[in-house]
Amino acid sequence: MKFYEYNKKEKKGITLISLIITIIILLILAGVVLMILEKSNIFNVADKSTREYNKQEATEIINMKITKIQMDSYAKSQKLATLQYLADELCEDEDIEYVLKKKSEIASLEKIEVSDVSSIFTKLKKYPYEFEINASLQLASINGETTSILNNGLPTKVKRIIETDKITKFEYKEKAQEYIVPESAYYKIECWGASGGDAGSAIGGKGAYTDGIIYLSKNEKLYIYTGEQGKEGTIDGAELPGTFNGGGPCSRTNAWGIAASGGGATDIRIASGEWSDFNSLKNRIMVAAGGGGAFKVNFVTWRDVRGGDGGNQIGGNGNVNSTYGSYIPPKGGTQINGGLSTNNANNIYVGSFGKATRNVTFTTSGAGSGYYGGAIGTTIQNTAFSGAGGSSFISGNGLCNAIEESSTEEEIIHTGSFLHYSGKYFIFSKMLAGNESMPSPNGEEEIIGNTGNGSVKITQVYFE
């Protein structure tokens, strides 16, 4: 019995020694692993990844604030926000630490006069990044470094953009048209949205214009969807269906008036499909809006109601002709929703993502399509409304608001960022509404808004 107890104690002693040795070996191995991790730079990579995530998060917050301020400005005054307006609004934002004209100034939230500068500097309280915002209300730099979002792969200074004679044009077709990139290079892409239909002597809203420069790789594919011009309703005929690529339908002509359908948008997509398919629509990286349909109405005498123009980031409102009272015109599409028409107490008409309002009543003029479509025009109490225009969109343009890839037709989620989820974006971009001067599709003269069907022009460019 004593022998057994002696051996049991001896076994316990051996187990304890083994445990101590095992712990020592594990500590040595842990040290070796830590040395390997440090040498392999994994900790630095992880730290860098965290910093990049925080930087992206801060950038998205600033972009969301810029977008909201611009939209609020337009909603209040029907005018685009200026750098001064942006600076004033940021000064009142509780998330902002300071707004400055120069980096060297003392941090302050006192309102400043910025008419003598081309950019301002601001910082969020929660993040260690200073953002420079230029006069176009786009991010120009982060902590003094030019933003890669807007200048990736470009020389830091561009004196001139040279257009080559390598040009491809796409005229209107009622289907998707494929463009296969011939060589890796920068390309300028121009889009003209379609105009809304005329109604007798009443003129349809003009189509918008968008352009920008994008880097494309050889054999990459883009899909071109050109908008169809709106049409005048037929006498005692059937209702006119909407036009290709989202223009809204109109009612038939009758004793009360002559209506016209809305113009379709023209867009560039990175995935094909039926024009109206949501998964295809959400792959649009550039959109030029279509104009709204006109209305000619008979209120004792015939009256013309011009269609609303295709817009820049916000579509042009429809117009009103009334002998009865004051009414709110049908609204154009925006960056986050379709245009709204609420004057008819029995109906509320709303445009949608990529489509003008699809409703048709006894007397209805169609709206223009766009990133979001406009609201239709109707009649009520000796008052006629023409269709509104759609909104335009360009990935990479600071005035735009992109959606998440996970968005569905039932639930569209906006990111507040101006970048399409694909990472594809344009530089040196602009959006011109249908009431502004723009290049003509034939390139021979300037025009005020596009009349007719939509079109696209792709030109290879290089920089000096």
Share of β-strand residues: 15-25%
Strand order of the largest sheet: 1-2-3-4-5
SSE order: HHHEEEEEHEEEEEEEHEEEEEEEEEEEEE
The class by helix and strand makeup works out as alpha+beta
Number of strands: 25
Oligomer: single chain
Q: What characterizes the major β-sheet?
A: 5 strands, antiparallel
The low-confidence parts are: 1-12, 148-157
Features:
globular; five-stranded antiparallel beta sheet; alpha+beta; 25% strand; disordered N terminus; 464 residues; 5 helices
Written overview of the protein:
Helix content is 20%, strand content 25%. It folds into two domains: 59-146, no CATH class; 159-464, no CATH class. The longest helix has 38 residues, at 2-39. It is α+β, with helices and mostly antiparallel strands. It has helices spanning 2-39, 42-77, 83-91, 148-151, 278-281; strands at 96-100, 119-124, 130-134, 139-142, 145-146, 161-170, 177-180, 185-192, 209-216, 221-225, 257-259, 266-269, 284-288, 295-299, 301-305, 320-322, 340-341, 349-350, 379-380, 383-385, 393-394, 427-432, 437-439, 446-448, 455-463. Helix 2 crosses helix 3 (83-91). The protein contains five helices and 25 strands. The strands form seven sheets. A five-stranded antiparallel sheet has the order 1-2-3-4-5. It has a five-stranded antiparallel sheet with strand order 6-25-8-9-22, with no helix packed on it. The chain has a five-stranded antiparallel sheet with strand order 7-10-12-13-21, with no helix packed on it.
